[in-house]
Every structure is written in structure tokens, then in C-alpha cells.
Amino acid sequence: MRAAGRWREVLAPVLLGVVALLAWQATVIGLELRPFVVPSPTAIGEQLVDHAAVIAAASWSTARNAFWGLVIGVAVALLAAAVSAAVRVVDEMTAPLVAAAAVVPIVALAPVLYTMFGANAQTARVVVAAIVSFVPVYVNTLRGLRTVTPVHRDLMRVYAATRRQATRVVTLPGALPFFFSGLRVAASVAVISALVAEYFGGPVDGLGKAITSAVSSSNYPLAWAYVVGAVVIGLVFFCATLALERGVLHRGNLRQRP
Amino acid sequence: MSATAPTSRSARSGPVEPVGPPDGSAATAAAAAVEVRGVSRRFASRSGDVVALSDVDLTVRAGEFVSLIGPSGCGKSTLLRLIADLDRPTGGELTVFGRPPHVARQNHDFGIAFQQAGLLPWRSVRANVELPLELHGTGRAARRARAAELLGLVGLADFADHRPDQLSGGMQQRVAIARALAESPSLLLMDEPFGALDEMTREHVQTELLRLRAESGAAVVFVTHSIPEAVYLSDRVVVMSARPGRVREIVPVALGSAGDRTEELREDDQFFDRVRAVREALHGTDPADGTARGVDQR
Ligand SMILES: Nc1ncnc2c1ncn2[C@@H]1O[C@H](COP(=O)(O)OP(=O)(O)OP(=O)(O)O)[C@@H](O)[C@H]1O
Ligand SMILES: [Mg+2]
């Protein structure tokens, strides 16, 4: 029964995908659409197979930037959220900065950053991904650290728990789900921003660069094949954070703290 | 019951100035569990001050079960929070086992159960019960044994590894009571702990509480809205009136010790008699002061 449910869960979307691809193929052939409008799935597939190595290399380059950006952004966000939660003044001072970071399209900074860090280095892309992923993690984690229910606060006081104990026992576990919802957002925007930042300059590797150059040489199926690479990276990042969240939250639920 | 109780109560309670008797035992000779002297609590608010409690006097003897009953907003929770040092009075004085409430709190002299169970949802039922022991430095093995014992007492031995959200409201409440009992406190503070339970479960848990209390000999301050519950459980029922919150009358119940009270008592004439007495006190026609009613005015 449960296995059947599992299968349906996996099979249904796969089936839908296959149907959609068939419909796509039929439309392209039936209407004789030109490749610059939209290439057929088989054309894209051909390119994927023929250029597997370059596509993988480009994907890897973008994924690496997104990953380090995400790691740095998350680390800084966690540190900053911890400080802001502990020291009110810091929070009040940094609030406008964070709000600015949230509304300013950071990728627009990319050209400036390329000048700053040198156009041959990946640094600018990593920095963009880091700033962009910082914001959701910081905002969510800080909210989580602030959200201690009154009854739990009373409980810690009644038990004369030290600040450290209260943090370990109540505040941190309560903030974890908030952190993970921030992380999930951060993971997808890190990939997007690392890729888009490539459009503004820097070294010639990476998916963003590959897509623009494929388009400018009118090789539309290849451009689409690179897009498939971008989709795959996005999915990998999303699934990885989801797995991490499930793993940590589930373990936390039942773990006996030493 | 007290076999695995923590032995070093005051030794590990964080940055606390050493206070009380050197052995750190809770009940000093003859000290009342709770002593409330002329206590007032006024809340300042934009739309004028609210007098939650006005000049309240109350003594709860060691081992005594006292219920607080009264209309909503009469300050029952406020009084309980003052005793637990979750709040400070604006006038008057309180002591818990002869010491200021904050000292009693640092000494872990009391356990508390709120209206909400207030379990930590990310911990197993067992880890929730172990929480106070863990915070106060009891070793792992002793903690586990104590939690197992307590979960057995509240009839949840099979649920030790469940998460709180897998339990019904009444079961969660019993976990909270087990947690409050974890350190075998000499004083138990309970704020409408059975408020969310259905009548059947409620009666069952009441009987359980009586049994637990008979075994532990703890004093209990118990807030409730139910007259039969107050009468069934208590040695004395404190009837309060609202705006400002005052003690209107204290009705002695005297239906025997906790260990002697059984389900049959609920059908007893004496029981109905006391229920009537509390109801009359509650709906009393003389709200200014409840004097000259022929009842104990302690
Ligand atoms: N933190 C607070 N700030 C302002 N007013 C408060 C606060 N806590 C309680 N009060 C006021 O004090 C009064 C007594 O509140 P309390 O919660 O003690 O009542 P209660 O007897 O427990 O009522 P209930 O039976 O509904 O739980 C109420 O009028 C309430 O509005
Ligand atoms: Mg209340």
C-alpha cells in the first residue's frame, strides 16, 4: 500500500513530463516551428549528448560559484543573526542595511564587482551569490531566534536555566525550521544569481556565458541544452537542502540530547 | 518515589548565591509552603491601571492542597505567577518555604504545570520529562530511570519515544505533570492543567493526581474553574472575586486525606455539601467582603 503510494508519487510526475515532451515534439513538428522559436526536445537531446562534456563543465563552474556563495552567505547570515539576536543595538543598526540588500537587485552590482575583484576571477560571482543568499537566511533565522513561545520562556525561568541552557534547549531548536525555510530560498537564488552574474562579464566559463554565446552563434538547441544544465543544478541544490532539512529536523525530533 | 530524586538540589543551580539551610532541603521546619502577605499586583496600561490583585493574604501549609477558584480575570494566574517568581508583586510580600520566591526558584523548590502543556515539540516525551533533571545536572542513567518511573505513574510508559504532537491533549497534559513532578518538588503549582480535557479523562487524571500527591506529600496550589474539581482535590478552596482581585472566602473541604479519596467520593453527600458551600461563596451576594459566613477565614 505504502510502496504503491510511493510509486505513484514518483510515477505521476514522470508520466506527466513524458506526455509534455511528446506534446512539445508533436507541436514543433506539426507546426514546423523554427529552432530560434523553440527547438524540439529531440534536437535539444542531441545537443545534450553531443556536448555532454562541455555542458557538464559549464554547469560545474556555475554550480561551484553558487555553492561557495551559498556557503559563505549562510555562514555570515548565521553569525550575524546570532549577534543581532543577542545584542539589540546591532540589530537596529543593521536593519536598514539588510532591508537595502533585500530590495536592491544585487546582480546589478556584478559589473562593479568584476572591476573590484578582477575580470578573470570568479570572486565577483561568488560574492553576488553570497550576498543574495545571505538575506533570506539572516531574516528567517533572526525571526526564529526571536520566536520563543511565552510558555517555554516561563519554563526556562522556572527551572532557573542559564542563558546558555535556554539557548541550547529552547531557542536554537525552535529556530531551526525558520533557518531551513530561509536556506531553501537561499539555495535557489544562489544558483540564479551566480548564473545571471555571468551575463555581466567575468571569465568565459559557466552556464550563463555558454547560453549567451550559443545564442549569439544561433545554435538555439545548444542554448537550450545549457538551460537544461541550469535546471539540473537548481534541482540538485533544492533537493540537497531539502534532504539536509529532513535529516536534521527528524533526527532532532527524536534524539536524546546528552 | 523519591528513590531517584536529585540529591544535590542547590549545588548545581547556576549563578546563585548560597541561601537557605546548608543541607539545601526545601522544607525548613514549620515553614509554610506558601505565605502571601498583603500582596497586590497592579498592571499599568495605556487605558488606565488594572488591579489584578489587591491585598491578598493566603497561607498554604506544607503538604496541603489548596485550589484557587473565581471568575475569569480575578487574578488566579497572576497569583500563581507571583508565587513562581514569574512576576513580581507591586505591594506586599510572598515567601515560599520561608524564602523569597526567587530564592525558592533557584533552589528548584517547586514544579509547575501551565494551562498549555508547553512541551518542547522537538523532543521525545521522555526527553521532555527529563528536561528539569537535565538542566540541573542529574546524570543520564538516573534521568532515564526517573523519567521511566514518572511516565509509568501517569500511564504513558508506552509513549516514551513518541513526539508530543503524536499525543492527544490530555496525554500531553499528563506528560507536563510528570515533568513538573520530576524533581519531587515539595510544592506543585498548577494553572488549570485539566482545562482542555474531556470530563471522563479529567476525572481519571484528577484521581491520578490525588494518588501522586498522596505518595509525594507535596503541597499543591491548583487553579481551576470547576467547583467539583476543586472540592474533590483540595483541603481548602480559596474563592476569589474580580476587579480588584481579592480573596473572598476560604472554604475548608475536610473530606479526608488525599489517599482516602476515591471515585465514590464524587457521589457522597458530604461532597455535594462542599460543592454547594463553594458555589454559594462564589455567587455570594455580599461581594464587598465575605465575612460572617460561618467558614474558615484564614
Ligand atoms: N501581563 C499583563 N499585563 C496587563 N494586564 C494583565 C497582565 N496579566 C494579567 N493582567 C490582568 O490582570 C487581571 C487578572 O488576570 P489573570 O490572568 O490573573 O486572571 P485569571 O483569574 O487567571 O483569569 P482566567 O480564569 O481567565 O485565567 C486581568 O484583568 C488581566 O487583564
Ligand atoms: Mg488564568
UniProtKB/TrEMBL annotation, chain A:
It comes from Isoptericola halotolerans. It is a multi-pass membrane protein. The keyword Transcription does not apply. PANTHER family: ABC TRANSPORTER PERMEASE PROTEIN, ALKANE SULFONATE ABC TRANSPORTER-RELATED, MEMBRANE SUBUNIT. Gene3D superfamilies: MetI-like. This is NitT/TauT family transport system permease protein. The lineage of its organism: Bacteria, Bacillati, Actinomycetota, Actinomycetes, Micrococcales. Belongs to the binding-protein-dependent transport system permease family. The chain crosses the membrane at residues 66-90, 97-117, 123-145, 166-197, 223-244. Keywords: Cell membrane, Membrane, Transmembrane, Transmembrane helix, Transport. It is found in: Cell membrane. Residues 59-244 form the ABC transmembrane type-1 domain. The keyword Transport applies. Pfam families: BPD_transp_1.
Automatic annotation (TrEMBL), chain B:
Residues 34-267 form the ABC transporter domain. Residues 1-25 are annotated as: Disordered. One of its GO terms (molecular function) is ATP binding. Pfam families: ABC_tran (PF00005). Keywords: ATP-binding, Nucleotide-binding, Transport. Signal peptide: none annotated. Residues 1-13 have a biased composition (Low complexity). It comes from the Bacteria. Gene3D superfamilies: P-loop containing nucleotide triphosphate hydrolases. This is NitT/TauT family transport system ATP-binding protein. It comes from Isoptericola halotolerans. The keyword Nucleotide-binding applies.
